[in-house]
Write a structure and sequence with these properties.
The complex is a heterodimer. Chain A is mostly helical. In chain A, 80% of the residues lie in helices and 2% in strands. The radius of gyration of chain A is 20 Å and the shape is globular. In chain B, the strands form 4 sheets. In chain B, strands 1-2 form a two-stranded antiparallel sheet. In chain B, strands 3-6 form a two-stranded antiparallel sheet. In chain B, strands 4-5 form a two-stranded antiparallel ribbon. In chain B, strand 1 and strand 2 form a beta hairpin. Classes of the chains: A mainly alpha, B mainly alpha.
Chain lengths: 333, 468
């Protein structure tokens, strides 16, 4: 593995973490939106508030990490992505801001009308943001973001693959969120909410799986290179993803036994890696490869060193936080 | 050397600059509350432990919650900025991302560490031994220092670019990431920003309690809430003026044209007067108060010091001197006014071991926070506008860095309205927290973001029964 490959793996790790943790965060917005009227939706919304309050906006750290690693490690790819996909990425940024503001405002206000309005802002931007981030990724995956020259500002994200990845992103977020919320409800001894989100997790799992499989037909027509990759060299990863997804669904049917969350995360993470593997060696198919778009060697080495330090510093800190969190849970029982 | 042909032809340049200035201008106000506020809260916490001071303990607990809210808002505005680096300035990132991108990665580590330890600190109020809990706050302070150092390293590189070479075709070669990190401007820019953060956090927090005291809440709690942050800011203020002086001399050395704009020096000469106020009208300095030879004296500690004039570069390569000069004057004025306020307290304390009796002191203190923010924004205008038309000093003009995408005025309009909403949200949340504290509740229930201080579920702020 070359230095450039190493940095690409680091970027992809960041993407995976953002999809999983940020995704579970965003997904709560859909369930918030679908929770029904003020009274009927009160308890699910309260659980959602409770679940994301402690996470605040800290999950965007993974996104920032991806951006920084990309612009340092692969500056030309970063410039091309940001120039061509200006529109969907601007909408996504706006969604991130509005989502945070809507959530904070809802919590801070008492009047029902205002709470509804801010709740709607939070929920809608939680759906809009992953959709447009997904559509941007779809533009890259289908080779519509060229390096070194401006791509089409409209068709780069308004195309079959972008729509498919956008919808898939929303489905994945909702699926992860429902699984995470089910486990949270159990931990908090709220059996009614546990059943509530269990049902939704199962439906979302089926939907996300259906979207993913239907999308393969879209890719066959619209992004044949990616399709060949997914059905060729990346097939083992696709199979693992499907197996994890099926396993998670089976456990959901059994009442979300231990391991459901792990399998759900596994299904999503391996799907992300299947895509990455299928697209390799291209950063931007088919104009820029990982090797061709990489920064100079000293910078790549520095990125890897910084990453290693990050793992050494952040890892134990996170472990400490997690340990304290567990202890607080013990206190609460 | 690059030609400035790109400047006139980029219609996106103006909106892109305004959007960047606006979003950065907002984010920079939040920075001190992530960098310096934690240290102030820890001082209160330490006092509470050392002398069993109940009021100091309450202050530390409340400050840590306000800190978490502001940190969350800063995380959002920071995310926007990292997108804008690419959305607005793809030319800069595409060419130089591998030279000066690394400081941002380093900043990422510090940011993440800080977020984790803020969470641990807030969790820890009820779950760690008091001593261990106090120590769990120390990494927040260190990460704040490290994070600002990293971001400033990137800005310093734009002012004094180092650590790379340019091939004849303009491509970047021979990159040395460490050299690009520690450039000549790094030291003084970092010290200046770090002290600014301590001044702003200190004066802003003290302002809140000064207002409370003016409204008649003159208990020990308010006195302490005023004094702890004010003293921190008071210690930073004189140091800041010294560092500012050093920085000005360094800019004279490193970025002569920025210095010329700052001092309104049109022609290269010795015995340059210092102009206080004043404007450049038709190439001549008008109005304002001139102190003979003082600019030369400040720049080189001798009236014989020769200062490079704006006329040494073609007009297209000069920054808008009036903006730079007046911002510089505003910054310095605010700095000295704040120093005066600090001296007032020092005098009263030396004579009577008490706050000055005059209500005017509290009135002045209650706007000191705003004054320090004005100084910060003005200083930042000096740094950034003073570098124009370059985004990388004497290497790349901003016109070459800006995006070609249309519609930036639209994105700016939307961003501005959303930020206004965000600002209102932040203020409303903080005020509700404060109102709740005055009514005697813990205030936990109204904090939208930040770690839970307890794992209770179903317990409403308005007193509804737990639903389990």
């Amino acid at each position: 593995m070359t230095l450039a490959d190493g940095v690409a793996v680091v970027v992809w790790l960041g993407v995976t973490l953002y999809v999983v943790f940020g995704g579970a965060d965003f997904g709560t917005g859909l369930w918030d939106l679908l929770a029904g009227g003020t009274e009927r939706g009160e308890r699910p919304r309260e659980l959602i508030d409770h679940a994301i309050g402690p996470v605040w906006e800290a999950n965007h750290v993974w996104l920032i990490f991806c951006l920084v690693a990309l612009w340092t490690g692969f500056p030309r790819a970063f410039a091309a992505v940001m120039s061509t996909l200006y529109v969907p990425l601007s909408i996504a940024v706006l969604g991130i801001v509005l989502r945070g503001a809507g959530f904070a405002f809802r919590k801070a206000t008492r009047e029902t009308v205002a709470r509804r309005a801010f709740g709607a802002v939070f929920a809608v931007s939680s759906i809009v943001t992953p959709f447009f981030l997904g559509s941007a990724l779809g533009g890259i995956a289908s080779g519509r973001v060229p390096a070194g020259r401006p791509g089409n500002l409209v068709t780069s994200w308004m195309n079959p693959t972008s729509v498919f990845v956008g919808v898939l992103a929303v489905a994945i977020c909702s699926y992860l969120a429902a699984v995470f919320l089910t486990i949270d409800a159990r931990r908090l001894h709220q059996p009614d909410l546990e059943r509530y989100f269990l049902r939704r997790a199962s439906v979302a799992a089926l939907l996300a799986g259906a979207v993913a499989i239907a999308g393969l037909f879209v890719l066959r027509e619209d992004a044949p290179r990616l399709y060949r990759g997914l059905t060729g060299k990346a097939l083992p990863l696709v199979a693992i993803s499907l197996a994890c997804g099926a396993g998670a669904l089976f456990l959901l049917a059994k009442g979300a036994r231990t391991g459901t969350r792990l399998l759900a995360v596994g299904a999503v993470a391996t799907m992300v890696w299947a895509w990455g593997f299928a697209q390799f060696p291209y950063l931007l198919p088919e104009t820029l490869t990982v090797a061709g778009g990489a920064a100079v060697a000293p910078t790549l080495r520095a990125v890897l060193v910084v990453f290693a330090i990050a793992v050494l510093v952040v890892g134990p800190s996170l472990a400490l936080l997690f340990a304290l969190d567990q202890r607080s849970r013990l206190d609460a029982v | 050397m690059w030609h400035l042909a790109g400047l006139a032809e980029a219609p996106q340049l103006l909106p892109a600059r305004i959007q960047m200035a606006f979003t950065l201008g907002i984010h920079i106000i939040l920075v001190p509350f992530g960098v310096a506020f934690p240290a102030i809260a820890l001082l209160a916490n330490r006092r509470a432990l050392r002398s069993g001071d109940e009021e100091a303990l309450t202050l530390a607990q409340r400050w840590s919650k306000a800190m978490a809210v502001l940190f969350a808002v800063g995380a959002v505005t920071g995310t926007v900025l990292s997108f804008e680096m690419g959305l607005l300035w793809p030319g800069l990132m595409g060419r130089f991302g591998d030279v000066f991108g690394l400081p941002f990665a380093v900043e990422g580590i510090f940011f993440f560490t800080e977020a984790i330890f803020i969470a641990i600190y807030i969790y820890g109020w009820k779950r760690l031994s008091p001593r261990l809990h106090l120590w769990s706050g120390v990494p927040i302070v260190l990460a704040g220092v490290g994070g600002s150092a990293a971001v400033i390293a990137a800005n310093a590189w734009m002012n004094t670019p180092r650590g790379f070479g340019l091939a004849s075709d303009g491509s970047v070669v021979d990159v040395h990431p460490m050299e690009a990190f520690f450039t000549p401007a790094f030291g003084y820019e970092f010290a200046h920003m770090l002290l600014a953060a301590y001044m702003i956090a200190g004066f802003m927090v003290a302002s809140v309690y000064a207002v409370g005291m003016l409204r008649g809440r003159r208990d020990r709690y308010h006195r302490l809430g005023f004094l702890i942050p004010f003293v921190v800011a008071a210690l930073a203020t004189p140091l800041q003026i010294v560092v500012g002086d050093i920085a000005a001399r360094a800019i004279y050395r490193d970025q002569p044209i920025k210095f010329a704009a700052q001092e309104l020096v049109t022609r290269t000469s010795t015995h340059v007067p210092e102009t206080l106020g004043g404007l450049l009208v038709g190439g001549e300095v008008r109005y304002g108060l001139r102190i003979p030879s003082f600019a030369s004296l400040l720049a080189g500690l001798s009236p014989e010091t020769k200062i490079t004039g704006l006329d040494t570069v073609p007009p297209a390569e000069r920054p808008p001197a009036n903006v730079v000069h007046l911002s510089f004057d505003v910054m310095v004025t605010m700095g000295f006014l704040l120093l005066g306020l600090v001296a007032w307290l020092a005098l009263a304390w030396w004579r009577r071991r008490d706050l000055p009796r005059s209500r005017w002191f509290l009135r002045a203190a209650s706007i000191a926070g705003l004054a320090s923010i004005v100084a910060l924004e003005a200083g930042w205008v000096v740094t950034e506008v003073g570098r124009q038309p370059w985004i990388v000093y004497r290497v790349m003009p901003v016109g070459d860095a800006v995006t070609a995408s249309p519609g930036i005025w639209g994105s700016f309009a939307v961003i501005m309205s959303v930020y206004l909403g965000l600002a209102v949200a932040a203020v409303v949340v903080l005020r509700r927290m404060a109102a709740g504290w005055r009514d005697g509740e813990s205030g936990d229930s109204r904090v939208p973001y930040g770690p839970r201080s307890d794992d209770g579920f179903g317990e409403h702020a308005d007193g509804a029964e737990p639903s389990r």
